[in-house]
Amino acid sequence: MIKPADIKRTLQDWGNELKTFDWQNINDPDSIGVWPMPVKMLLTFALFCAVLGAGYYFKIKTLQASLASVTAAEAGLISDLETKAVLAANLDAYRRQMREMEESFGALLSQLPGETEVPGLVDDLEFTALGSGLEFPSIQLLPEVTQEFYIEKPIRIEVVGGYHDFGQFVSGVAGLSRIVTLHDFSITAPTESRSDLNMVITARTYRYKSEDE
Questions:
Q1: Does the structure show a pLDDT above 60 at 16?
Q2: What is the mean pLDDT of the chain?
Q3: How far apart are CA 47 and CA 32, in angstroms?
Q4: Which residues of 81-119 are buried (b: 16+ CB within 10 A; e: fewer)?
Q5: What is the mean pLDDT of residues 40-67?
Q6: Is pLDDT above 70 for 167?
Q7: Residue 94 located in a structural domain
Q8: How far, in Å, CA of 166 to CA of 161, rounded?
Q9: Which residues span the domain enclosing 149?
Q10: Which residues contact 188 (CB under 8 A, 6 or more apart)?
Q11: Residues 75, 64, 76, CA angle at the centre, nearest 5°?
């Protein structure tokens, strides 16, 4: 057991060594063996701190960066797993929705006229215009426009009448059993020679693009 007297004696010895040490030799590495014990202990502690700091900087810091990267990747994987778990839990509901969408899509396709039905659609447009109290000077089939899943058939229509008649005509076209949309209309005001308005509008109907097309 270390006694207080021994500790006191040791401290006194270290003090004497520091007093008698020639401090000019501190810059001579070859004289380390004769340095006082406190100086040796201070040097050892400094070297220990330097080694510890270098180890932290070159090794532990790199490991911490790797740990942060792995932790972020783990969080991403957990989030992805949770998303896939939700999808798996709702798989049956998604399949039902897909079937309903396919049925709805088929119902919409049934409303698209085939190539041979365009003349009938023209007759429907003309009947709707006349039924709305409009004159029907001209109708022109424009070239087809091919889209990704369907083919667009523009039809240029010219009608003559009043504002309210135009509104009734548009409502009648919207109520047709076939899918028809109206675009790019222009209305010309009455002139001295004509008291009615003149409207030019483009109706677009659609048909499904076959595999060959």
A1: no
A2: 78
A3: 14
A4: eeeeeeeeeeeeeeeeeeeeeeeeeeeeeeebbeeeebe
A5: 74
A6: yes
A7: no
A8: 7
A9: 113-208
A10: 197, 198, 199, 200
A11: 10
What is the distance of C-alpha 91 from the center of its chain?
Answer: 23
Residues 6+ apart with CB under 8 A from 157: 125, 129, 136, 138, 139, 200, 201, 202, 203
Mark whether 55 and 130 lie in a shared domain. Answer: no
As for how many domains the chain has, the answer is: 2
* Domain match, 18 and 84 both: yes
The reply to whether 135 falls in a domain is: yes
Instruction: With residue 174 as reference, give the H or E element that holds it.
Output: helix 163-174
191 in a domain, yes or no? yes
Whether residue 102 lies inside any domain: the answer is no
3-class DSSP state for residue 181?
A: strand
The helix (H) or strand (E) run that includes residue 47 is: helix 37-55
Amino acid at 139: I
